[in-house]
Fold:
Amino acid sequence: MYFYAFLCTFTDVLNAPLRKAEESIVFKPIQYALVAIFAAGSLAANAATREDHLAWLKMNQEATPEFAAGDTITIDNADVIRPFIPVEQQPTLIFDGMEMPIVEASDLTPRQDYLDVTVKHLGEATIASDGALENYAAGRPFDPTNWEPGSAAHGYELIWNYTYRWQFAGISVADVQWIWVRPGESHEGHEAVTTDNGAFAENYRGGGSFERLLRGSYQRVLMSHRSDLPEPYLWNDGKGFAKGTDFREYTGFDSPFDIAGTAFLILRYDDPRKTDDSWAYIPSLRRVRRISVEVKSDSLLGTDHTLEDFYGFNGRPLEHNWIYVGEARILAVNSSRYTTSHFYGPSGFAPWDNWELRDYWVINQIPIDPAHPYKEKFLYLEKETTMCFYANAYDKAGQLWKTWQMSKNWTEAPNYRPESEALGARKTTEVVRVPSFQSINVQDHQNDRGTLVPCFGNSYPTPVFRKVKRTMDVNYLTEGR
Structure:
């Protein structure tokens, strides 16, 4: 289905539940009735639909906060934050014993060169009839000033703004931990808590039964449209290894023993119409295998994540249709008080951290391929950074399937570099000004399970060609394994 045909047909479908909610709106009673659907504990998957989500969003778009920076929200006054936390997330974040400190919204503006390049090229980028980005140089491609809810045209502009959000040159993470979690009373004694002489015990408070721990490294290097480089904004002058490439991304696993050495490499081309090249090294086969597009939307090594779910969305925009839904004010961990994620709560999924109220864009993702596992997904993108902090996906029957919550910390915080380097991060001296990818945590509400994915040893290093090539070239994917 092409872009402009989709623009006409889906707008009516999207707006129908919004109109229905608006016609019957009685704010407080309906809001609490919706919340009652989501009982404390795990969500009942058959109780949540996209209509529930859109009704919650519509009712709370004009909500006025009854709290302020300096307040700490507990279960006794938790109703004041319900208009500012997506309804599907509330059972995880609102519970007896919760403590949610509210802080002033911090300054998360990108680095000045990204802002300058945005102004320099504003108005040049265009959207083709199939949704592809054209005539784009660098910076933020589109001005959001006149976006209209329900618009597919503005949905594509928003997803391209998200795709080319400020990320410096990419991220390197020394230790990514993937922890399978089920509802349970305790994870005491699990290797996630006891490993490295209990170095991470403080990170995992609360409940939740930990089933399995995967560990490995991750790196993403951006090669085109780099605002930190002189025009034409190409790394290595767009030659050799970087030619025609948007980014390369490596995900490797060091433990446990049954998957140690498994690695994935994704090459995203600068041409938005060109399909990714993706490979996996499978130790048991002792060979590299090319992986298909479909694999990127499959479960990653048994976790509740897919390769496409990284960052909230990490796929190719042209494999989906996009609708701009509207705006929302949302509480999230935008600039953590910690370098690494700290969790607590009955299931061990709630961030133990500071929370900021900020403005967000909401976008609806609808896969084009009927074989894709999700029917649709909603992403919440913070306006200053265009980064994703919440998402929720629905199955083919339109029932809630998965929810994601993401936390960030600030690269310029005084404790960020020294504490990250102590955990194995690469040294960097540049001012980066990126909300660093701290954790992405997903819950599968139909399987009553989740996966915590905290990151340790994060940095945003200036890439060195010879070093990146050794990690990111398929010919070296098996080295040292």
Remarks:
- The chain is about 20% helix and 25% strand.
